[in-house]
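ok, trying the design again with the full structure, not the truncated one.
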């Protein structure tokens, strides 16, 4: 029994594909964090490998005491190369040897596993979910543009609403409609056809909009209602039927019979659009820090653990060297 003025519009079209749409599954800040994580992990790997005594190897095993020619496979360039190769899930001929560098490698592999799995899953959603674009989302959008024409049923209550309105935005819309009288239509059917032709919005009562969008899947209501009013039944002044009719209507509302009647005539099976067709505007959202931020925390904790491990390795090796030196001096 309640209604208002709404906007009838053609179902929005598909958004044009973008050249860099492959980056859509992840939010911009996530891409920046991934780059930062790559630089941080590569730098940490380089420092830890230099600090850990177990990453220094003898390239000439036939010379057992060649301490002066020991090399470290993780120089700065190779550290960055190891990180990017493992990020892309490719093989690498460099393998960490110490516990500290293995911790970095393991935690980075875990990070890339979660990141790539999340990216792949969301990329599939972006490729399968139909992306649509809506040129207008509300009456404000409609009033502040000139590409899409709009109008009402000529000599209707909706037309009177805009003509007599005191709200600036509705006054602006009325001035536009007065300047373009060809946008007024003489029937609802004419308005529906003009909407389907494109670039036209039809301002009409919400009950008729509900009826039309239920039967034509190419139509949609944009935004909410511009006003609110209700249907009523007129009786003679002082009529005994006034209270009886009012109580009967309230009873029909309370027991749900009015809703059942509405569903019968507005949402008859076989005549209305299916939920699948009316829900074509589902959108996949890019993954943000709130979705996969935890994996960055795990990565940082892993790097801290690797640095602690490298420090312990260094101290252990130093202690062994002191013990060996003391033993030699005693001999």
């Amino acid at each position: 029994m309640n209604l208002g003025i709404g906007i009838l519009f053609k179902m929005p079209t598909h958004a044009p594909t973008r050249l860099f749409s492959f980056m859509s599954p992840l939010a911009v800040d996530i891409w920046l964090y991934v780059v930062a994580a790559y630089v941080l992990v590569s730098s940490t790997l380089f420092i830890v490998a230099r600090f850990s005594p177990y990453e220094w190897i003898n390239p000439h095993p036939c010379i057992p005491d060649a301490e002066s020619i020991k090399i470290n496979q993780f120089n700065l360039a190779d550290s960055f190369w190891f990180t990017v190769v493992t990020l892309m899930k490719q093989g690498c001929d460099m393998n960490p040897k110490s516990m500290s560098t293995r911790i970095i490698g393991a935690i980075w592999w875990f990070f890339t596993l979660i990141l790539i799995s999340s990216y792949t899953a969301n990329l599939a959603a972006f490729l399968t979910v139909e992306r649509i674009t809506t040129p207008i989302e509300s009456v404000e959008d409609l009033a502040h543009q000139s590409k899409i024409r709009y109008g009402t049923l000529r000599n209707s209550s909706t037309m009177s609403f805009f003509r007599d309105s005191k709200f600036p935005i509705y006054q602006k819309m009325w001035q536009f409609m007065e300047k373009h009288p060809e946008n007024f239509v003489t029937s609802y059917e004419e308005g529906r056809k003009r909407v389907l032709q494109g670039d036209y919005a039809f301002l009409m009562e919400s009950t008729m909009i509900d009826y039309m969008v239920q039967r034509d899947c190419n139509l949609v209501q944009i935004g909410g209602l511009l006003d609110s009013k209700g249907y009523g039944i007129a009786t003679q002044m002082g009529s005994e039927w006034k209270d009886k009719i009012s109580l009967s209507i309230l009873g029909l509302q309370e027991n749900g019979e009015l809703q059942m009647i509405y569903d019968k005539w507005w949402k008859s099976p076989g005549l209305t659009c299916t939920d699948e067709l009316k829900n074509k505007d589902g959108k996949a959202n890019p993954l943000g820090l709130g979705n996969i931020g935890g994996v960055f925390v795990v990565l940082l904790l892993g790097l801290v653990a690797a640095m602690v491990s490298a420090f312990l390795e260094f101290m252990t090796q130093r202690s062994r060297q002191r013990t060996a030196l003391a033993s030699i001096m005693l001999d």
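Keeping the full-length input from now on. The chain has a mean pLDDT of 82.
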